[in-house]
Amino acid sequence: MNTPKTLNIGSGRFFFTDCLNVDVEAQWTPDILLDLSRTDLFLEGSITVPTERFGDVVLEEGCMDHILAWHILEHIPNLIPMMTHLLFVLREEGTLHVRVPYELSHGAWQDPTHVRAFNENSWLYYTDWFWYLNWKTHRFV
Fold it and tell me: What is the secondary structure of 78-107 as a DSSP string?
């Protein structure tokens, strides 16, 4: 079976059979149990992870066409490494689909596991001000 080209991070209860599902909690039985916010990932340029559905999967630069990040980024304490790793595995012209709570919504802070909320300016460092993050060759647009 071919490895899907859509990465579903923080899959949790949103497990999709047509995606490569990644989560940090084993209870959700993701394809890959991995914390993408770890700072020691991709130090060698790629990582190989075992999966039940797809065998060994190599996560490397530009290997994904799409990334789904549905209600996960608000839970990540160390967001910059996570975004850096997502940018690394996403191919040029690929798409990152994000769903996060808006900072003024009641849902943004009712969940005690949320560590941040988002607004329109939350993305500036990942798009226009990418150089603050020491990103030199790629950024989100």
Answer: SHHHHHHHHHHHEEEEEEEEEE--BTTSHH
Looking at residue 48, its amino acid is T
Q: Does pLDDT of 1 surpass 80? A: no
Flag whether 141 is in a domain.
no
State the total domains in the chain. 1
**Domain encompassing residue 47:** 6-133
Q: Are 9 and 72 within 8 A, CB to CB?
A: yes
Residues 6+ apart with CB under 8 A from 52: 31
* Residues in contact with 16: Cβ distance below 8 Å, sequence separation at least 6, in sequence order: 6, 8, 68
Q: CB–CB of 39/27 below 8 Å?
A: no
Indicate whether 139 belongs to any domain: no
Q: Rounded mean pLDDT of the chain?
A: 96
CATH code assigned at 22: 3.40.50.150
d(CA 46, CA 74) in angstroms, rounded, equals: 26
